[in-house]
Amino acid sequence: MLTPLRGQRGSLAAACLLLALAVLLGGGTRQGLAADPLLQLLSLPLLWLALVRLHPAAFDQGTRLALAWSLLMIGWVALQLLPLPPALWLRLPQRAAIAADLASAGVAIGWRPISVDAIATLRAALAWLPPLALALAVLGLDTRSRVRVAQAMLLISVLAVLIGFAQLSGGQHSPLRWHAYTNTLEAVGPFANRNHFASLLALALPLATAWIISATRPRPQQMAVLAYNARLGVAITILVLLLVGIAVSRSRAGLILAGIAVVLSAALAWRTRQESPSRARAPGARRWLALAGLLGLVFGIQYGLVGLLDRARQDPFADMRWQIAANTLRTARTLAPAGAGAGTFTLAYVQFEPAEQRNEFFVNRAHNDWAEWLLEGGVPTLLLLFAALLLLMRATVAAWRSQGEYAPWRRAAAFSVWLVLLHSLVDYPLRTTAIATVTALLLAITFAARRGHGRTEPDALAASDGGR
After folding, report:
1. Using CA atoms in the order 76, 81, 84, 90, what is the torsion angle rounded to 10 degrees?
2. Which residues sit opposite 112 in a β-bridge?
3. What pLDDT, on the 0 to 100 scale, is given for residue 97?
4. Domain residue limits at 309
5. Residue 349 lies in a domain
6. By mean pLDDT, which of 87-91, 118-122, 248-252, 302-306 is the weakest?
7. Is residue 446 part of a domain?
8. Residues 54 and 139 sit within 8 Å (Cβ to Cβ)
9. How remote is the C-alpha of 422 from its chain's centroid?
10. What is the pTM of this model?
11. Is residue 303 scored above 60 in pLDDT?
12. How many CB atoms lie within 10 A of CB 432?
C-alpha cells in the first residue's frame, strides 16, 4: 500500500490553473516573449508543492526512468552553459572560425561554453519549468484526480475552439489574435500558428474518446439519469467541437493528425470491447463515437471545407520546410558531436544556409523539431531521444495492456504523445509552452499508470486515499 498523498484538491486546482494559463498564454514560439517568463515564475510554487508532497513510493520503475531521462536532458542543457578552457573549447567543431572572428575584433577568447548563444540556451533551460512542474504535480495525484486534469485539458481545448470561432467572426484584425505574428485568415485560438492550434485539438481527440467510453459505462445506482446523460452529452459535444475546430484552422498537418487520431480512437473503442467480459457497453460507446464523428464531419465540411481544399491543392513538397530540414541535418553533422547549444538554431543555421536558398524570408525554425534537436544538442541529445522513444514504447504497451475504469485515459494519453511527436517531424509544436505543458500532462498520465502487467485498477494511490 502506498503512502497517501495529502492536499489532493489543492494540487489538482493548482495543476489545472497552470495548465489553463500555459495554453491560453503560451502559444507563441519565439524566444523572449513576455508570457514565457511569467509562466515560468507562476510554475515555481507548483513545482515546490509537487516536490514537497511527492512520496518516493508513488514512483514505479517506469516513472523513475522517465524522471531520470528528464534530469539527464536538463543536465545536458546545463552542461552546455558550463564555461570551458580555451584549449578545450577550440577543439569543438567550428569554434576555431568563431575564435578568428573574435580575434579580428580584438576580443580575447577566454573561457567559453559549448553553446554559441548562452542567453538563448538559458532561456531554453528555463522553458522546462512549466512542463516539469505540471508533470510532477500530476504524478503526485491519485488516478481519479489525474483524469480530472485531463478533463480540464479538454475543456480548455474547447475554450480555444470558441476563441477561434470568435477570431473568424472578428476578421483579420480581431483583438483576440493576441500574437503579433500570426495567421490572420484562419482560426488560431490562443496560438500564433494555425498548425499548433490544430495540433492541440488533434491530440485532444483520443482523450475525448476516452471520456465518451467512460461515460457509456454502466451507470452507478446513485447517479441520476439526468446527470448520466449530461456527462455523456458533454463528452460528445467536446469531440464534435474539436473536429470542427481542426476544420476551421485549415491546417494540412492538423487534418492528417486528426485522421490518425480517429484511427487511434477507433482502436480505443475496440480495446474496450475486447476487455469487457460482457461486451455490453462497447456497442453503446461505438455508436456514440460514430455519431460524434458524423456530426463533426458535417459541421467541419460546413465551416472549413473550402479552406481545406484550397490548402490541400498546394503542393506540400514545394514547401521550403523540406529544404530547411535537409540543411538543418547537414548543419547538425557539421556541429557534431556537441551541437550548437539549446535554443541556438537561428544563430547556427544562418552560418551554414546555402547562399542560393537565401531570400527575403528569415528562417527562425527548422520546421522539423527532431532535426533541430540534433543541431542544438548533438550526439548526447540523439542518444537521449533514442532512449525516450524506447521508454515511450514500453509505457504505451503497458498502457494498452492495463485494465480497469481509467485504462482508456491512459491509452489515450499515450496515443496523444505519439501524435505530437509525429507532428514534430514537420513542425515545432513542442517549442510552444502550451503544447509542451500539455504533453507533460499526457506523459505523466501515461507513465504514472504503469503498475505492472495484468494488475487492475483502482490503483493503490486511489485506494489509500479512501477512494476519494
Report:
1. 90
2. 84
3. 82
4. 8-50+120-319+366-464
5. no
6. 302-306
7. yes
8. yes
9. 11
10. 0.88
11. no
12. 27
Asked, for residue 173, whether it belongs to a domain, the answer is yes
Tens of pLDDT along 248-272?
Answer: 888 888 888 988 998 898 888 888 7
Lowest mean pLDDT among 22-36, 263-277, 311-325: 311-325
410 pLDDT above the threshold of 60: yes
Question: For the chain, what is the domain count?
Answer: 1
Q: What is the mean pLDDT of residues 104-117?
A: 85
Taking CA atoms, 389 is separated from 59, 383, 417, 421, in Å, by 20, 10, 11, 10
Cell representation of residue 251: 491546417
**Do 388 and 345 meet the contact criterion of CB atoms below 8 Å apart?**
no
Whether residue 86 lies inside any domain: the answer is no
